[in-house]
């Protein structure tokens, strides 16, 4: 994927411009709870069921032209490329009314989207896809790349782990590309295009994105066999409530973006020009150091680089960090004058079946809490053999980088430390709770009950 470019009003330069506008807000998002389902292993003969639609090519309504690039903001550019047939039913009106009654929600989500929309729209136009698909993260994640649903769907486009792997989204102890702005967008658009090629209908493709292509295929076959229509409105009667509302939700946002004043809503201005640029990083760098060199807060840095889930960014030929253009210039200037180690972390592989955190902390001259926080290890747990964890560098590892091979294969596994909750009496005797005096058993039960109650509250 091309990552470094400069904006020009010329069409050719814009086609190479994967960039986004700066956000004005970082409020948490409300998830739709919608995971992407893994593609079915075998495709049904859907083309026969949908003839002649199955032979259709991607909608031509997004033909790239100079008019799209004369728009002064990204919202106008999105409107220019609308190409999915409109849906008009009671559910659409319901969701339009919901958004119209919550101007603060639209303003917050729109401001958050301003980090990413330019890049997403550019990628859609390069593929000749309808630009209203850029609004889909409004429904999936409220444009929060850190979003995680109860079904373990992550990122702006809400990929579950299996589907993420199907679309080459790397997931390991150091990074999760389901959250990557560029990688997840590329994967989501590839998946949507595949669904459109399968169904020849964007509304059904969207339903499959939410419900799973196999379920939509079965619904189409049932209607086909019964001589019923196979459009979204008709098929939605067979769909679960979430999917039945999914396409109407997107249509509602599409209607609002088309004419926000009609609903007394205001969309934050997003300049129709690139915002971020990508910097190659071949050596390890601490996330806090990268933010410092770019003169950004850690939160601002993470907003563009949400895929990194450890305090160190492992360098390599494929590693890039995204920065606003002016901050990229500051980064390069400050880096040239830095003169210190860029990373303070290295890796350690656990070989003992029950290596304790406090023992590791003493060995690497740090505290147990530092190791737990760096590796997301819960309290009262021990690491399993085979885990690869981050530890502070020592004098012998100051100049060593973590290899991409280690990062790609690193896993962290832990289990409850059954000895952590035992009293000194129990540990001395080597017994379990049942062997302790009655008073100790009561105290233990009381503490556990209080802990559960606290977690529930």
UniProtKB/TrEMBL annotation:
GO cellular component: membrane
PANTHER family named in the record: MEMBRANE-BOUND LYTIC MUREIN TRANSGLYCOSYLASE C (PTHR37423:SF2), SOLUBLE LYTIC MUREIN TRANSGLYCOSYLASE-RELATED (PTHR37423)
Residues annotated as domain LysM: 359-392
GO molecular function, one term: peptidoglycan lytic transglycosylase activity
UniProt keywords, alphabetically: Signal
Residues of the signal peptide: 1-23
Lineage, broadest ranks: Bacteria, Pseudomonadati, Pseudomonadota, Betaproteobacteria, Burkholderiales
Membrane-spanning residues: none
Protein name: Membrane-bound lytic murein transglycosylase D
Protein's organism: Pseudoduganella namucuonensis
GO biological process assignments: peptidoglycan metabolic process
Cross-referenced InterPro entries: LysM, LysM_dom_sf, Lysozyme-like_dom_sf, Transglyc_AS, Transglycosylase_SLT_dom_1
Transglycosylase SLT domain location: 125-228
């Amino acid at each position: 994927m091309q990552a470094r470019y400069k904006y020009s009003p010329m069409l050719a330069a814009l086609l190479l411009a994967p960039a986004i506008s700066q956000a004005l807000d970082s409020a948490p998002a409300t998830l739709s709870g919608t995971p992407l389902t893994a593609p079915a292993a075998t495709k049904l003969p859907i083309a026969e069921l949908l003839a002649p639609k199955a032979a259709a090519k991607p909608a031509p309504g997004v033909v790239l032209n100079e008019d799209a690039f004369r728009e002064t903001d990204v919202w106008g550019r999105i409107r220019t490329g609308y190409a999915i047939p409109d849906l008009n039913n009671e559910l659409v009106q319901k969701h339009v009314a919901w958004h119209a009654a919550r101007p603060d929600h639209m303003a917050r989500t729109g401001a958050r989207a301003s980090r990413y929309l330019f890049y997403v729209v550019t990628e859609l136009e390069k593929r000749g896809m309808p630009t209203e698909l850029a609004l889909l993260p409004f429904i999936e994640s409220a444009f929060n790349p850190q979003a995680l649903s109860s079904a373990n769907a992550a990122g702006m486009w809400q990929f579950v782990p299996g589907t993420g792997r199907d679309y080459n989204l790397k997931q390991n102890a150091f990074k999760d590309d389901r959250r990557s702005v560029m990688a997840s967008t590329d994967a989501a658009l590839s998946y949507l295009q595949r669904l459109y090629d399968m169904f020849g209908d964007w509304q059904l493709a969207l339903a499959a994105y939410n419900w799973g292509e196999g379920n939509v295929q079965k619904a189409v076959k049932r209607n086909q066999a019964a001589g019923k229509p196979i459009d979204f409105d008709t098929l939605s009667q067979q769909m679960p409530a979430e999917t039945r509302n999914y396409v109407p939700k997107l249509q509602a946002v599409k209607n609002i973006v088309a004419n926000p004043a009609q609903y007394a809503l205001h969309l934050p201005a997003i300049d129709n020009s690139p915002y971020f640029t990508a910097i190659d990083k071949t050596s390890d760098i601490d996330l806090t150091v990268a933010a410092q060199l770019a003169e950004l807060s850690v939160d601002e840095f993470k907003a563009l680089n949400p895929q990194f889930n450890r305090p160190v960014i492992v360098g390599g030929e494929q590693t890039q960090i995204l920065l606003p253009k002016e901050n990229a210039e500051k980064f390069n200037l400050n880096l040239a004058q830095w003169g210190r180690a860029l990373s303070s972390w290295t890796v350690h592989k656990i070989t003992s079946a029950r290596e304790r955190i406090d023992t590791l902390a003493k060995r690497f001259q740090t505290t147990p809490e530092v190791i737990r926080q760096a590796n997301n290890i819960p309290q009262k747990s021990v690491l399993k053999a085979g885990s690869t964890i981050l530890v502070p560098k020592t004098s012998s590892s100051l100049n060593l980088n973590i290899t991409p091979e280690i990062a790609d294969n690193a896993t962290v596994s832990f289990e409850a430390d059954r000895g952590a909750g035992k009293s000194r009496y129990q540990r001395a005797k080597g017994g379990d709770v049942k062997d302790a005096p009655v008073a100790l058993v009561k105290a233990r039960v009381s503490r556990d009950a209080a802990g559960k109650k606290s977690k529930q509250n």
